[in-house]
Amino acid sequence: xxxxxxxxxxxxxxxxxxxxxxxxxxxxxxxxxxxxxxxxxxxxxxxxxxxxxxxxxxxxxxxxxxxxxxxxxxxxxxxxxxxxxxxxxxxxxxxxxxxxxxxxxxxxxxxxxxxxxxxxxxxxxxxxxxxxxxxxxxxxxxxxxxxxxxxxxxxxxxxxxxxxxxxxxxxxxxxxxxxxxxxxxxxxxxxxxxxxxxxxxxxxxxxxxxxxx
Length: 213
Known about the structure:
By secondary structure, this protein is an alpha/beta fold. The protein contains 6 helices and 14 strands. It has helices spanning 9-19, 25-43, 84-90, 137-148, 163-172, 204-209, and strands at 2-5, 49-55, 60-66, 72-77, 95-96, 98-103, 110-116, 125-129, 132-133, 153-158, 160-161, 180-184, 190-191, 197-198. Strand 13 and strand 14 (197-198) form a beta hairpin.
């Protein structure tokens, strides 16, 4: 497993505003959209392409286009939905699947409650959207879910990551013969006793959409 922290002033600037507890939900959503587009730029460096012959107004030329099968973007519900528009702006021809996973707050283990994905993902590159790589259990379960269906290349895009989560993810995916990359805006200090990232930005879902009653 490879971890890439995107070191760019604009990324840090937008992330700082996301962390601020005074940032309201509409601003948080807008900044998440912008930040994910920046992360997606780095995350798609290995996207598969194939050569294509075109003609410019001046001459013939050889370029590239996205290879088939198309990449599959998979937001983890519900907070991952807040990252979808920013990613799709950069890769609008990608297909989208959905994976609903919930973490047990006592055991910190993840379970699947809903999915809308092709049964066969053979040969597919998958981009998983999950704002917070905290304990690592949810993301590990999602990646295993996708590779069990045949996905052969996984990139996870996270706003924040914690060292404990990255260690857990690497351990849970040990022996997996599929390349996995985590692209994140920052590697934070640690997890607290409740499994939240410190200093973090709070609950990403609540910050994006408000607290459901």
